[in-house]
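Lab meeting, item 3. Inverse folding demo.
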């Protein structure tokens, strides 16, 4: 398993409530893919969403988003956690 940070860019502002709903859908969908969506951050004014996910690979993480709500990330980065 590895950690990934994905980045979504939404046209216009994004609401925290909408992101909360999408995250809940990820949690309901992730099990069969051995993926765990851990945390998310939102910049409402800039339309940016950042998701931290523990997954076997980036494609598995993207598949969960695609099936859960259709909002696939624009970018996905493998990251290492610092101290």
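The presenter then showed the designed sequence:
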């Amino acid at each position: 398993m590895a950690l990934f940070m994905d980045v979504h860019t939404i046209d216009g502002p994004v609401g925290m409530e909408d992101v909360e709903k999408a995250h809940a859908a990820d949690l309901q969908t992730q099990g069969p893919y051995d993926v765990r969506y851990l945390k998310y951050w939102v910049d409402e004014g800039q339309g940016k969403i950042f998701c931290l996910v523990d997954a076997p690979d980036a494609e598995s993480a993207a598949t969960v988003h695609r099936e859960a709500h259709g909002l696939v990330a624009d970018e996905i980065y493998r990251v290492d956690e610092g101290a």
